[in-house]
Each structure stands twice: as structure tokens, then as C-alpha cells.
Amino acid sequence: xxxxxxxxxxxxxxxxxxxxxxxxxxxxxxxxxxxxxxxxxxxxxxxxxxxxxxxxxxxxxxxxxxxxxxxxxxxxxxxxxxxxxxxxxxxxxxxxxxxxxxxxxxxxxxxxxxxxxxxxxxxxxxxxxxxxxxxxxxxxxxxxxxxxxxxxxxxxxxxxxxxxxxxxxxxxxxxxxxxxxxxxxxxxxxxxxxxxxxxxxxxxxxxxxxxxxxxxxxxxxxxxxxxxxxxxxxxxxxxxxxxxxxxxxxxxxxxxxxxxxxxxxxxxxxxxxxxxxxxxxxxxxxxxxxxxxxxxxxxxxxxxxxxxxxxxxxxxxxxxxxxxxxxxxxxxxxxxxxxxxxxxxxxxxxxxxxxxxxxxxxxxxxxxxxxxxxx
Amino acid sequence: xxxxxxxxxxxxxxxxxxxxxxxxxxxxxxxxxxxxxxxxxxxxxxxxxxxxxxxxxxxxxxxxxxxxxxxxxxxxxxxxxxxxxxxxxxxxxxxxxxxxxxxxxxxxxxxxxxxxxxxxxxxxxxxxxxxxxxxxxxxxxxxxxxxxxxxxxxxxxxxxxxxxxxxxxxxxxxxxxxxxxxxxxxxxxxxxxxxxxxxxxxxxxxxxxxxxxxxxxxxxxxxxxxxxxxxxxxxxxxxxxxxxxxxxxxxxxxxxxxxxxxxxxxxxxxxxxxxxxxxxxxxxxxxxxxxxxxxxxxxxxxxxxxxxxxxxxxxxxxxxxxxxxxxxxxxxxxxxxxxxxxxxxxxxxxxxxxxxxxxxxxxxxxxxxxxxxxxxxxxxxxxxxxxxxxxxxxxxxxxxxxxxxxxxxxxxxxxxxxxxxxxxxxxxxxxxxxxxxxxxxxxxxxxxxxxxxxxxxxxxxxxxxxxxxxxxxxxxxxxxxxxxxxxxxxxxxxxxxxxxxxxxxxxxxxxxxxxxxxxxxxxxxxxxxxxxxxxxxxxxxxxxxxxxxxxxxxxxxxxxxxxxxxxxxxxxxxxxxxxxxxxxxxxxxxxxxxxx
Lengths: 375, 596
Description:
The complex is a heterodimer.
Chain A: E1 7-12, E2 14-15, E3 27-28, H1 34-48, E4 56-63, H2 71-80, E5 84-91, H3 98-106, E6 111-117, H4 121-126, H5 133-146, E7 151-157, H6 164-176, E8 181-186, H7 194-206, H8 213-223, E9 226-230, E10 233-236, H9 249-255, E11 261-263, E12 268-271, E13 274-278, H10 282-290, E14 297-301, H11 304-315, E15 322-323, H12 333-341, E16 345-350, E17 353-358, H13 360-364, H14 366-373
Parallel strand pairs in A: 1-4, 1-11, 2-3, 4-5, 5-6, 6-7, 7-8
Antiparallel strand pairs in A: 8-10, 9-10, 12-13, 13-14, 15-17, 16-17
Helix pairs in contact in A: 1-2, 1-10, 3-5, 6-8
Chain B: E1 6-13, H1 19-29, H2 42-45, E2 60-65, E3 68-73, H3 82-90, E4 94-100, H4 107-118, E5 122-128, H5 137-148, E6 156-157, H6 166-176, E7 189-198, E8 202-211, E9 213-215, E10 219-222, E11 228-230, E12 233-237, E13 241-244, E14 246-248, E15 252-256, E16 270-273, E17 292-298, H7 304-317, E18 322-328, E19 332-339, H8 342-354, E20 360-362, E21 366-367, E22 369-372, E23 379-381, E24 393-406, H9 410-419, E25 423-429, E26 434-442, H10 443-447, H11 450-457, E27 463-473, E28 476-483, E29 486-487, E30 493-496, H12 497-514, E31 522-528, E32 531-538, H13 554-570, E33 572-574, E34 577-579, H14 581-591
Parallel strand pairs in B: 1-3, 1-4, 4-5, 5-6
Antiparallel strand pairs in B: 2-3, 7-8, 7-16, 8-15, 9-14, 10-11, 10-16, 12-13, 12-15, 17-19, 17-20, 17-21, 18-19, 22-23, 22-24, 24-26, 24-27, 25-26, 28-29, 28-30, 28-31, 31-32, 33-34
Helix pairs in contact in B: 12-14
């Protein structure tokens, strides 16, 4: 018997070092446990297999640093996972050797997302990143040599001490590598992180002077022929990619409100009216699955009303207009009208199909605009 | 008792000059209160007769001294109640004027002394606190004698604290204060000099019988207002309530009326009997009108019914309090309230917050204006938003302000008064050191922060009192505050044209600091009619979006959105602009004299 879920996330928490700004579920060191962890993830997959459709559309290996996982174990995991049209692996530049690149390609990975973050040494230092600018380039070349034609780079902007010129240089360096896809995130001082303690006040102080950085990123990348298809995501436009849609299909599934299954510690799944998060502690996770039990989970019920609110919230992050239909009930008509008057949103009736989309100015103000649009 | 053996008097004094202590000593000396029951400020703190359910304070107390009946009548202590004070004094033939030997004469001493003189009272001058090391009994006695035109050796010197000289005060009351001279055989007339509300017995009136006599169960009528009722009980306080069959000419006591509304029995009105009514009421009745107005809004709009109930209950005991519902687009539902003056406003506000536990937003107070639109009739306006755009003439209330200061502060006080559009009236030396200044000032100039400025400029030495003297025309304009082009009704103000620019500037600058950046530029303007006199802009936000949102972030993201949405709901909407309530509070505080 098979289910409907077509998107699978696998969390690989191991890292060589925990960066100060990171609030993901990560595990430093513990090389001896990679085998046990892969076993546990595969055991969890068996427990949940009934939820998965017979054919998967996407798989995403996130971390942590998935490519920090023992190569043999990583390969074993990839071999054991079901097949999918898009298989993405996150990688830190310094881990991407030519051997690893070939291993990934051999194991069915179609897409690699490299955590470059910056090409400016002093900013990388602030971010506590180990790889220098050259390591990023080397990683990209290794992946290209291995045959990858879909590479994404992650960049972080708004780093303490980052000038506008620093930002432009980072963008130039990234564009020079001609990635198919770019994700650009503003640095957040998430509460409780080491980084928030060390740099939180500084970030708050500079927030006004760096207010324009997001606009700079978008202007520069769109000018270079990239499609700004989601708030923080850009892909080479189809006309410059042989007509290919290079959007990250796995992430699109989140933004379209599709169901997804997450495996591993801290991983989140949403299936039907239920969302759950696996408990983040590694030993308890390993022990439970060794006993043949599912891991401890935090479960959240999603009512139909919550789901359509989420659909609006996520859908408005995209450049393609959001088809309303059943979502109409989640909107505040007065708020939407106000957004339209301010030139922040456009309602359209395309062949009888009602849609709502934020204008580009509206997308820069996405959180406020969404709060206004939603009932 | 025959009138020849009755003496009716008040004790008048500036605050803290020893009025309550002297009253305590008198009650003790006349054995009205036993040594066992004696404690400080006995009249203010006395346990009331619970078994009869009465919860009001004695406004007059009867004591016996050497074969005489002495009625000590209490007076309200502050400037807003000048009219009530004058009614209390009208019930007396004499007044003990108490001055602190270390402080000398203060503005309130003067105001009270003048009121007593106006009411033809015999003044018994007393210098108190002669036991204090810094006391100057001779200097103070000389000032006091000069003030009331009396010989210095007739000024009594006492220490109410130790009791020294208090017997002499009682003797002087008997000797110097004339007995009442009403006609015991005439149709009865009694002056209502105070009233209280008790939830079980209704309105209790404090009266001074002038002519004739009143009997329990008699049908009575308040002559000015025409209110009719039966006297359920007559009596007096000594110091507890004592019922009596009659109250006769010259006597002071209470009447329990059973009326449920204090506004039906106003201070200053005359009681007479229905059966044998007097032809004329006693002179001096005035319908007191509120002069200072402010909007009172609950901080939490859910508290509106509580505020309405609280005002209703306060009004039971405060006939001068005026209120009517007011709706402000910025502040929601509330009340426009009228007060006799600033202190009255403070008292009401404090009682609402303390006794009724309400969180209030109070708009900057304004005075009553008389406005004449072109080709129209003169109308009274209580709130700036009622002021028409085009006016032919605006009149505002004026006061005569009386300030007493050590002479080195005369310059700074005159400067302050000139800044406040004051017109100099008189300067008079009370002694070599102390000067009495009188000015005519618009009431509007003192309702905001005049008193604070006066105190800080004179290091607290100035004392201040005022009297309303009527309406006069002024060059007044209405300044509106516009946020995103929309006027914010609660922030409009009426102001003299010369100060409009400066005040408008201050308002918009403060608002700019308080209004968070929005998704568009927000213009904040101050305008007179269609002319903008000050402008600031809150620049639009350029970015308001958290970058990352994947499968694991959705719940957190949705919760943040709900929070943002809830935040928006707490905002007040002015046109398209979301303004936090705190912004209005900050600006209103600016209006209330907050100098940042």
C-alpha cells in the first residue's frame, strides 16, 4: 500500500564545527555514530514508507553538513533511498573533493547546494566559516567536472562590518561561477545563538544602514538574468537555461503547501492535517529506532483553516500569482484592497481564475504585506 | 438654644498650616471627643455609625463651650471649589484664620481671608506653630494684622500641637464672633452649604438654619431648583450623628432627604417648608459651570462600561462634575468631562484610577470657549473638534491669578506671566520679604503646566490661587494634527495664534518619533484650517521580510505572522496609517506638560 507524499527530506546533522549564527539541529564530531545514524534514518524510512507515493518527485538532504557524513555512509544512504526526479544535497565547500563530487553524481544526486555564504575573508571569519573563497570555487569546479549541471550557491548578506561594496563583490564572485541557482539570506541573529550574543546589538544598530542590501541583491541578480522566483531564491531564467525550469522543486513543494516527509533528528513532516517534528537529541533517536520504535515527536494539528492561511503566507513569497479559489476565505478583503492601493499587490482574474500576487515592492515588504492581506 | 448662645465658625488656613490639628484640640478641650477616642485628624478619620449604614463625613460638628453652642463648619480645601467655600463661609458669622508662624501668609490664606471678608465674617486671626524653632510669631502676626486691618495685639498666638493658647481661641470665638441674627418666627429658611450621598439614605444635606425652624417629617422644598422631599431625619454631628426633632434658627445640622440624585439639591440653594414657605430664597445661589474640559478614554476599550458606571457613581457625590459620551476615531469610545478646574480634574482622575481601578487616557485639557460663527449666535464649545473652521470671534475664560513669592522671584514670575499672555494687575508688599502679585491670565494658559513652571522657577516658594473673572475675546485658532492627510481628532487644540507654530512643531516632531515606519511614507502635519504650519515625514520601510522559509520553518513563520497581525489589531487606524496607542499617549503627555 502506498501513500501520496512525493517529497522527502532527510536530515544529516553532522558538522565539523557549529557556526555561531546557526540554529539548525547539528551534531559536531561523533564520527563513530555516522553508521548508526544512517541505520536509524533508514529504519525510520521503513516505518513511514506507507506514507510515500510509489514515485517520489524530490529528495533533499539537508544538515548539518550532509557532505561531512562519512562518504561510505552517505553513499549507502543515497543508494537505499527511493528514486526521485530531483535529488539535492547540501554541501560545505571544503568537503567537496573531486572524489566526493563523483560519488554524489554516481549515487543519483542531481543538484548540489553549496553553502558559500561569502567570498570576503573577514566576513567569513565573522560567520566562523572554515572555507575560504578559493574553496568555494574549487568545489564548484569539482562538481562541474563530475557532471553536475544544477548547482546552487547560498549567500548571506547583512554581516556585521559588511559594506555595500563588500556585498557587490560577493555577488560578482558568485555570478562569476555561473551557478544555476542562488539563495540569498539576510543574516539573522536568532535568539539563543552564540552569534546573537556576540553580534546581536551590532546587527540591530546597522539594520537601517543595511536596509537597502536586499534591494541591491535583487537588482543585481535580476540584472544578471536570474529569476527572483521566491523571496530569497533565484534561478537562471529559462531563456538562459535552454528552456529549463531551474527552480528548486523540493522547496517549491513547501511553498505550494504540498505534503512532505522528514526523516532524522529535528526533521519536520507535514502530512494531511498533521505536522510533526522529530525530537532533536541524537542518542534518544538512535535508541528508539534501534528498538524498532518511531522517534519522539512534537505533533501539531493543522486545521483546514490553518492550512489555507499557510498557503497564502507561503504562496505570496513566490513570483507566480497565487491562485485564490478556496484561499479567498483566508484573506482580509479590506487589507488586500489597501495593498492594491499602495501598489504592493495585484489582484487579477485570469480566465475566470482569481489570483493575488505581491508586486516587487510588495515582496520587499512581504511580512507586513502578508499580515495585512491575511484575515 | 437661643441664638444669643450660638456661634457658627470655620477654620480657614493654607494647606499644612494646622487646620486639622486645631480642630482636634477644640474637640478635645470641649470634651466632644473623650481622651480615649482622641487621635489625630479625628474629623477626617472618624468611624462612622455603621449600624445606620451612613458612610459620609461630618461637614459640621457641634461643640459646647462655657454655656455656648459652637458649630465648626468645614470648608473644602482648594481653589477649584471657591464657590463651595464661599457657601460654607456664608453659613458662618466668623472665621478663625490660621497662619503658620514659620511660613507666613500664603496665596490660599489670602484667597480665604478675602472670601471671609466678602461674607462679612468676623475674623479671629491666629498664628500657629509658635513652638517651632524657626517660627517668627511677631513677624507673622504683623503680616496678618496688616492683611485684615486688625491690631497686632489682637492676633492670637498658639500651638495647636501642644494645645498652648487654644482655650483663648475658643474664648475669642465666643467674645468676638457675633451670634446669628435670623428671625426665629419667620417662615423657615436654611442654606444648603454641602451635600453628600449615602447609598442607603440618599442625599444628606448640610444646612445652616437662618430663619424659623425645621421639624422631622416635614415636607420641604429647595427653592432655586424646586426639588421637593420629606425630611426623613434631622440632626447634627457631635462628633457622631445625633438625630434631633428640630433644627432652629441659627443652628447647623443635617437633613436626610432620601433623594437619589445629588444634582437635585445643589450647594447654595435654600430649603424652606412646603406648609409655610418663605417668600424669597437666601441670596447668592449660583449654578456652577465647569470651565476645564478633557476627554477621558479607557486604555482598554473593553473598560468603557466600567468607566461609564464609575462616572455615574462619582457624579452622585459631585454635582459639579459634567460628562457626556464622546467618540474619537483615534481613541475610541470615552467621555468628554467638565471640571471646575485643574485640581477638580486631578481629583476625579485619581478617584477613577484608584477607587475604580481604571486605566485612563486623558486628553490635554482645554477650557470652555465661546465661539461666534459668521452670522451666527455665540455658542459654547467644549472640545477643539467642535470649533467651526470659520469664526468671527472667539472668547475664552480669564482668571485673576494671585501669586505670593519672596521678592527675589518677582522678576521670574512676571516673566512667566507675560509669556502666558498675562496682564499685570497689581504688586503689593506683604512684608519686606514677600510680595503679592496679581495678574489677569487666560485660564487656558494655566491649565497645562503653569503651576509646574511656577513652582520650578521659584524653587517651590510661590503660592498660587485664582478666581474666574469672565470671558474675553482672544486671537485663537484651532490647530489640527494630520497623519497621512487624515485629521486626528483627539490631538486638535485651540491655541493663541502666536504659539500655534511652536506647538504644532512640537506635536509633529513627537509624533514622528512615535509612529513606526509603515509600508509607505507617512506625512505628519500640523495645520490651521488648510494651511500647514509644520510637517514631518516617517519614511517608508524598504524591507520587511524574513529571508528563510522552508519545511521546518513554516510553523514558526506562521506564529510570527499571527503575532504581527495581532499587533496590527492593537494599532489605532488613522486612514491608512497604523498608529500605536502609545504614540497618542506620548503626544497627549506632551500636552499635559511633559517637558521630556
